[in-house]
């Protein structure tokens, strides 16, 4: 306690967590070396075995199980040691109302028994160790998903991608360890952490016998060099601000940390740094090769370095000044210049011998227990007086202020003229010669500049354009994706294009093709995102604008659709597809005149554009331009005689022009091509009724009722036809069915039924003494809005 307040003293592990190590590798587009992964997991298993050997007397001698092992609580110190922390942290609560509180890094490393809320034992930690080794060797978490529920769903069935597809260069020994450790059934897993440790040590002894924690520490120091220097610098700053007692502590801590990192493992025992340092040892083994084509599976699945949220974004794969070859491998050994701390001298008492550590551009130095900023070197100030002025003065004006300290009384007349800016005395003839020569030189220089510019422009105009070299793997994936898209294999197509984007994330064409693939698979949201990315990289892509505008139209966002398509038409005024879809959007928004004009422009660019002919005909019908509409629709029928909609549209035009026989013929042809066309059957039925072919009209309505028994309007229409044929009982039955479905009867139909059916029937039933049946019929009539207490309305 201090001042009555309890506190806990723990060891300070100066290093970085395994999660931070993952992020640093990801930022540099590298994978971890096999031997580094084997060593880290071997040390983790050694720590777990030590914990598993401990029993808890108060819990029935139950052994200690970590239950929460993940990259956050595996600490890699800068001296090469591996520590496991956070024993005793409460396990994850998988109840539905608390699941959202956990991020992926707390859920993605659970075992199947934890996800299924079963009991845990020592083998639970073995499974988690396998997931850590899986991520180290592939660069991809085993159970990465967008939401916690999806993560748990995959863990419950132990669904992870085979490692060999993610990293073909994976050693078989390492793959076998991961598969055995991540077995779904506990009885099939490696029985203890000690066995895992021995298997990995056996691999290291066989392939990397000299590898040790010192090599891991050297790698960490090289990767986090800037952080190391900044932390030491920060502690010195704290020492200056703290009081006398605290200041002594802060002065001691950076000395310890500095000595911890300053001696590179390869240079131990070399003595003073004043002598030549030995050459760095050659790298034992280069890390695994690139994620190659199986990186399709991983695309852009990474953990956000700032928010710890699982995201899908390809920005992390953009080339940031690192060549592709550098991005495809990780060197486990860094050069001496990269790994050593920038210090002169190796004496541990660094405050006494004034050795220097270069923290920021060689500006800082240690002296008397403090960190000081070196003084800036300035040019000495020359004293005033005659000695400042050289005896041999050059001609011409002197720089402003150069002679401000000169005692002019001591100068000769010639020197006085120079100091005053007047220059030496020159004769008039000499002045003319100098002016003439200067003019000629100036003209010559101007002529040479013109000649040079002309020749450079000519070479630039004739020079061949530099070809951009594409990654052959990306080209192969794109070719396979196009083939899959052509044959309708949309899932495979999306996966292939995602893999291609790993290599060329700024390729707008690949993003556009991904959008087309998603749109073909009815994944509208993903398609819109892909087209948006394509347009971000290439704002003038007309094809992406058109596709995105069409998708907006499909989901009812007509204003957004119109905006995209208007931009496309502005960029490509002669593109018939853009013109047609913009006309379609304006047609839906009710701007018929503008839509007709754009349909006409699309037809002028593409003479056989039958969709444009069909829609222009429909627009002209709405505008009352019957002959022009009929001509357009007839042209569409001639171009597409097997298209049901073409016949239906022309039949509608005939009906609007009261040419019912032609309308019936066209509607019949439309129904032959598409028997389920409801509008065509209804239109033909009405035309048949108008021409007196009531029986045929009733047959059409009966077919519609059979296909759509819940449509009250069909019963109403058939009721009217039954009245025409005198089938009053059928007319009443259809009217009552329509009323039961909520359809309101037309006033004329209600009047006819009142006068011809309900009133005579009720009167007859009353005369026959069937009062209850008469009352029932009154109620049925009342349900249709027909009151038998009043005079029936006149038929209109």
Describe this structure in words.
With 796 residues, the chain is mainly alpha-helical. Among the domains are: 15-223, Transferase(Phosphotransferase) domain 1 (Transferase(Phosphotransferase), domain 1); 225-267 and 338-376, no CATH class. It contains 34 helices and 11 strands. The N and C termini lie far apart (101 Å). 34% of the residues are buried.
What descriptors fit this protein?
about 800 residues, mainly alpha, Transferase(Phosphotransferase), domain 1, 3-stranded antiparallel sheet, two-stranded antiparallel ribbon, 11 strands, disordered C terminus
Give a short overview.
The chain has 796 residues and is mostly helical. Helix content is 56%, strand content 4%.
Fold-level CATH name of one domain: Transferase(Phosphotransferase), domain 1
The CATH architecture assignment of one domain turns out to be Orthogonal Bundle
The computed structural class is mainly alpha
Helicity, as a percent range: 55-70%
Which regions contain 5 or more consecutive residues with pLDDT less than 50? 263-408, 460-466, 791-796
Q: Going by CATH, what is the homologous superfamily of one domain?
A: Transferase(Phosphotransferase) domain 1
- What is the number of beta strands? 11
DSSP strand content: under 5%
- Mean pLDDT, to the nearest integer, reads 74
Separate helix tally? 34
Q: What is the element layout, followed by pairings?
A:
Blueprint: E1 15-17, H1 18-27, H2 34-52, E2 55-56, E3 62-63, E4 74-77, E5 82-84, H3 104-107, H4 112-115, H5 122-138, H6 148-156, H7 163-166, H8 172-181, H9 193-207, H10 213-223, H11 225-241, H12 244-262, E6 301-303, E7 310-312, H13 324-327, H14 336-339, E8 343-344, E9 356-357, E10 364-367, E11 370-373, H15 413-419, H16 428-462, H17 472-486, H18 490-503, H19 508-520, H20 524-537, H21 542-554, H22 558-571, H23 576-588, H24 592-605, H25 610-623, H26 626-639, H27 644-656, H28 660-673, H29 678-690, H30 694-707, H31 712-725, H32 728-740, H33 747-767, H34 771-783
Antiparallel strand pairs: 1-4, 2-3, 4-5, 6-7, 8-9, 10-11
Helix pairs in contact: 2-5, 2-9, 5-8, 8-9, 11-12, 17-18, 18-19, 19-20, 19-21, 20-21, 21-22, 21-23, 22-23, 23-24, 24-25, 25-26, 25-27, 26-27, 27-28, 27-29, 28-29, 29-30, 30-31, 31-32, 32-33, 33-34
């Amino acid at each position: 306690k201090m001042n009555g307040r309890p506190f806990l003293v723990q060891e300070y592990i100066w290093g970085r967590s395994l999660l931070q190590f993952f992020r640093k590798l990801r930022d540099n587009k590298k994978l971890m070396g096999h031997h580094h992964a084997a060593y880290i997991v071997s040390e983790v298993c050694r720590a777990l075995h030590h914990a598993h050997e401990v029993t808890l007397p108060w819990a029935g001698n139950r052994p200690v199980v970590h239950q929460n092992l993940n990259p956050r609580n595996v600490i890699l110190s800068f001296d090469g040691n591996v520590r496991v922390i956070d024993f005793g942290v409460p396990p994850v609560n998988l109840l539905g109302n608390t699941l959202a509180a956990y991020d992926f890094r707390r859920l993605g490393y659970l075992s199947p028994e934890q996800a299924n809320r079963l009991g845990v034992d020592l083998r639970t930690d073995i499974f988690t160790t396998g997931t850590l080794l899986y991520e180290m060797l592939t660069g991809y978490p085993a159970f990465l998903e967008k939401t916690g529920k999806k993560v748990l769903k995959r863990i419950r069935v132990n669904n992870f991608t085979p490692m060999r597809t993610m990293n073909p260069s994976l050693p078989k020994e390492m793959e076998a360890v991961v598969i055995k450790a991540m077995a779904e059934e506990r009885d099939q897993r490696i029985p203890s952490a000690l066995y895992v440790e021995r298997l990995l040590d056996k691999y290291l002894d066989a392939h990397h016998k000299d590898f040790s924690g010192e090599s891991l520490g050297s790698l960490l120091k090289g990767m986090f060099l800037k952080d190391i220097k900044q932390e030491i610098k920060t502690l010195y700053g704290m020492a200056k601000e703290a009081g006398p007692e605290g200041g002594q502590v802060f002065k001691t801590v950076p000395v310890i940390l500095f000595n911890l990192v300053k001696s590179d493992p390869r240079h131990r025992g070399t003595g003073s740094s004043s002598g030549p340092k030995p050459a760095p040892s050659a790298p034992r083994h280069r890390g695994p090769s690139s994620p190659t084509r199986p990186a399709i599976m991983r695309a852009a699945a990474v953990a956000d370095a700032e928010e710890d949220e699982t995201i899908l974004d390809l920005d992390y794969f953009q080339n940031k000044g690192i060549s592709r070859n550098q991005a495809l491998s990780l060197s486990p050994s860094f050069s001496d210049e990269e790994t050593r701390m920038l210090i002169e001298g190796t004496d541990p008492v660094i405050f006494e011998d004034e050795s220097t550590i270069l923290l920021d551009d060689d500006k800082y130095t240690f002296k008397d227990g403090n960190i000081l900023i070196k003084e800036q070197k300035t040019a000495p100030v020359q004293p005033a007086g005659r000695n400042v002025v050289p005896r041999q003065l050059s001609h011409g004006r002197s720089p402003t202020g150069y002679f401000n300290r000169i005692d002019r009384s001591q100068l000769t007349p010639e020197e006085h003229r120079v100091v005053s800016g007047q220059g030496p005395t020159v004769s008039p003839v000499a002045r003319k010669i100098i002016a003439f020569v200067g003019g000629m030189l100036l003209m010559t220089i101007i002529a040479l500049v013109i000649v040079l510019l002309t020749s450079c422009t000519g070479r630039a105009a004739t020079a061949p354009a530099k070809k951009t070299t594409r990654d052959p793997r990306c080209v192969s994936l794109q070719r396979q994706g196009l083939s899959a898209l052509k044959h309708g294999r949309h899932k495979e197509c999306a996966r292939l294009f995602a893999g291609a984007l790993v290599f060329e994330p700024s390729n707008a064409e690949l993003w556009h093709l991904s959008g087309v693939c998603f749109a073909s698979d009815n994944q509208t949201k993903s398609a819109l995102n892909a087209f948006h990315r394509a347009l971000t990289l290439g704002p003038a892509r007309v094809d992406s604008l058109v596709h995105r505008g069409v998708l907006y139209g499909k989901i009812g966002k007509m204003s957004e659709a119109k905006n995209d398509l208007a931009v496309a038409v502005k960029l490509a005024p002669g593109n018939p597809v853009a013109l047609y879809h913009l006309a379609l959007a304006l047609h839906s928004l009710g701007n018929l005149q503008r839509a007709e004009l754009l349909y006409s422009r699309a037809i002028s660019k593409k003479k056989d554009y039958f969709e444009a002919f069909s829609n222009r005909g429909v627009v002209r019908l709405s505008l009352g331009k019957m002959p022009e509409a009929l001509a357009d629709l007839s042209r569409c029928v001639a171009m597409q005689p097997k298209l049901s909609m073409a016949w239906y549209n022309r039949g509608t035009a005939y009906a609007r022009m009261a040419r019912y026989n032609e309308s019936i013929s066209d509607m019949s042809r439309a129904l032959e091509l598409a028997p389920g066309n409801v509008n065509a059957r209804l239109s033909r039925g009405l035309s048949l009724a108008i021409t007196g072919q009531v029986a045929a009209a009733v047959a059409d309505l009966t077919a519609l009722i059979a296909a759509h028994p819940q449509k009250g309007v069909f019963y109403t229409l058939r009721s009217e036809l039954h009245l025409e044929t005198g089938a009053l009982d059928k007319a009443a039955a259809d009217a009552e069915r329509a009323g039961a479905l909520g359809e309101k009867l037309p006033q004329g139909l209600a009047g006819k039924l009142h006068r011809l059916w309900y009133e005579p029937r009720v009167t007859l039933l009353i005369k026959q003494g069937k009062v209850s049946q008469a009352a029932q019929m009154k109620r049925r009539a009342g349900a249709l809005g027909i009151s038998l207490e009043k005079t029936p309305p006149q038929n209109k």
